[in-house]
Design a protein that fits this description.
alpha/beta; 6 helices; YbaK protein
Length: about 160
Amino acid sequence: MAEEIFRKIIDLLEQNKVKYKLIEHEPVFTSEGAAKVRGTKLEQGAKALVLQSKKKLFLAVVPGNKKINLEKLKVILKVKKLGLASPERVKEKTSCEIGSVPPLGNVVGLDTYVDKNLLENEYIAFNAGSHSKSIMMRSVDYVKIVNPEIDLFAE
């Protein structure tokens, strides 16, 4: 299933004529590990987190060097309860394991919210549905193909 997500990502990039770099590497499970094998800065990593409110799942994307502030995001989303979705729920919704979810909510059927700090990087890098495949691309192209809500909710 993760291979299917990877194909959807590549198809989306190619259909939109987006220049990208595919990086195949040893499996990584942390933002620090990913930055190291990609040869990128920690803050360039687009860390995608699947969040669950009472009624809905969302995709929140923060730079690899930051943490999500759920209180700020609750206000932005206008929800009373918000937390990380369970690993089982993440797999069920995205076909990906935690840590390999791409920051492309349009590929996995989730509304996407991106912390503005991530977009200060000219290039961002992210796991492409796998712990051993990453994509590096321009942040302006990312915004163009994902059309996320952009706000400040990382610290």
